[in-house]
Structure formats: C-alpha cells, structure tokens
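Look over this record as teaching material.
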Amino acid sequence: MSTLDDLLADARARLVGVSREGLGELLPPRRLLGIPRAPRIVRRGSAWHLGTLLLTDDGLLATGDILRARAEVRRGFTAESQRQRAQLAAAARRGGFAEGETVHIGWLWLDLDAVGRGAASGPVRVVDGEPRVRWSAAGGYVPLAGYLDERIGLLVDPPGGAT
C-alpha cells in the first residue's frame, strides 16, 4: 500500500500536460465612492478536477461548487437558484475568468498531515493503513489509488462524446 504523498506525487506525474481548471474565491462587494460594486470571483490558482477532489501542485482540496464564467445578461428565471448561479457565473467573468471557463468555488484545503495521523480531512482518511476517499456523502470509503486511477483515466482519455 502506498502512502498518501506517494499516491499524490504519482497522480501529478501522470497528469502533466492535462489541462487544469480554475480555482476562484468569491470576494464580497466593495464600495466605490459609497456605491456598492458587484461581487467578483478572483483566481486563486488552478487544479486538476478528480471528482470529489481537486489536486494542485502542492496540495489536495475538497471540491465545492462548480460553474462556468459567463457575461452578465438580463434574463428571466423560473427559480431563484438559477438566478444565484447566473450571478456567480457573472461574478467569475468580472473577476477575470474567460468566457466559458470552468471555475471551482467553495473548495476546502485538506489537512494531509492529519490524514497521515489517521484523522479524516474532508472526504479523505486512512482506513486500515490505506488512504481512502469517500466520493459521495452517502457512500462509503473506497481505496484512493483505484479512485485516482479511474479519474486520471477519464481526464487523459475521456469517453466518446464527453468533450
């Protein structure tokens, strides 16, 4: 069984040349001369999206919300949740993300040292000496090595019609 650090280093090596997705942070609206400005989502890096995990050059994150940046336009909405997602997409565009670019917000840094000591951090923990990941809130823990193999395979060679 591999250690968590070995698994992540191997994953990074296998992902060289594979495109990454943007990491963003929602900034509260500022005031300019007393007038509130619109909120922005600013770039905080990039990561490979591996399902419930985001892998960066130096860490591992739990996935939060995912959206695509797009220009703000006036449109009618049948649900308030649609309006909120459109506002977030526009905030990403205002923050400097390209039109249509995938943006992750609400992600959380995982404490890999705590995982190494046997504690859980987000969806990752060590069970019986093996790093494991819970890919769904209702699901159990599966071996991280197999999970990463599957997710990297999907990134490197996506199934037909997926791109």
In short: The chain has a mean pLDDT of 91. Residues 4-156 form one domain. The radius of gyration is 18 Å.
